[in-house]
Amino acid sequence: MAFGIRIALVEGSTHTRRALSTRLSETATLNLTWALPTLAMGLARMKSEGCPDILILDSTEATGTSLAELLALPVSPTSPMKIVLTSTNPLQAVPEGPWQLVISKPRPGQDPDKDWPPASFNALTGTTHNPLATLPRPATSRRIDIVAIGISTGGPTALEHLISELPHTISCPILIVQHVPVGFDLSLVQNLARRTRLKVALGTEGAPLLAGCVFIAPAGQHMIVRPGAVPSIGLTNDPPEQSCRPAVDPLFRSLAAIYGGRVLALVMTGMGEDGLRGVRALKERGANIVVQDEASSVVWGMPGAVARAGLADKILPLVAMASEIAIVSGRK
């Protein structure tokens, strides 16, 4: 379910595309629908999904046959798409075209200025940039006692980034279900452990859920949480769900039963719909649900299913998810 002004981004530099995607996603009234490296790829998306309200276009892509195709797209008479051109130096000559605005962007490898996007862009969209780093903790008396992550295709690389960005002062346990074949779970644990001061381990039957511990579901078994004075890990050989074992849904359901709304659940890059049913159970009890955005996902299956069902409290790029965990758990 999409809300707000639909923004799309064409930017050739991977670093710049991710950095600008993060900034755009930090504004609640903007909905970053996709971010792609070429206008040709963007055209294919627009032909299948329709045009965004605003297209932010890399000035180096504003040429050739792709630009001609863009300008030939059907225009909505009530809400025509606005095109904003980005350039490393907007004061220099830029290609002629129907641009509503030309704004600066950082050079490749650099991050945008703290006041990006500029006031001229905010005036065009009627928004105000509000960086995640300055967001207050959500206005709620509900505390977060545990973080759970469901992830699949593209997961190992995404988890490396996420866990390396988490502050070591996180005082919630973190449970991760990564769809992984037998024989590869231990190497995943070892790889993640090298990137953090948090304790990373395979989930084992009866292991207590202690602060600052990260548990990875072992291959071939479902990982759940068992109740107790100190809740603990449980492992089961129940049938696969969504053709997966471990699967995300059993973990999420067990968390809903034990922790209720005191859960932050993240659904990240992955194929299929594993996690959707578990998210429904968590949402019924008031848990916080965050999904990874399409632009930073290798496959937008699992997170997309939750987003389309209208169950996501936030849709964030990968680069913003560690900050969200820290903010919501009150550890930043």
Tell me about this structure.
This protein is of the alpha/beta class and 332 residues long. It has 2 domains: 5-130, Rossmann fold; 146-328, Rossmann fold, CATH 3.40.50.180. It has helices spanning 14-25, 39-49, 64-71, 119-125, 155-165, 185-193, 248-259, 276-284, 302-308, 318-328, and strands at 5-10, 30-36, 54-58, 82-87, 101-104, 146-151, 174-178, 199-202, 213-216, 222-226, 232-236, 263-267, 288-292, 314-316. The protein has a 7-stranded parallel sheet, with helices on both faces. It has a 5-stranded parallel sheet with strand order 2-1-3-4-5. Helix 5 (155-165) packs across helix 10 (318-328) and helix 7 packs parallel to helix 8. The longest helix is centred in the first third of the chain and has 12 residues, at 14-25. The chain is elongated and about 65 Å long. It starts with a strand and ends with a helix. The relative contact order is 0.13. Residues 130-141 have low confidence and may be disordered.
Apparent shape: elongated
Which structural class is indicated by helix and strand composition?
alpha/beta
Return residue spans where pLDDT drops below 50 for at least 5 consecutive residues. 130-141
CATH homologous superfamily title of the largest domain: Methylesterase CheB, C-terminal domain
How far is the N terminus from the C terminus? 29 Å
What does the main sheet amount to?
7 strands, parallel
Task: Tell me the number of helical segments per DSSP (H or I, 4 or more residues long).
Answer: 10
Count up the domains. 2
Q: Helix-strand pattern, N to C?
A: EHEHEHEEHEHEHEEEEHEHEHEH
**Residue-averaged pLDDT, rounded?**
87
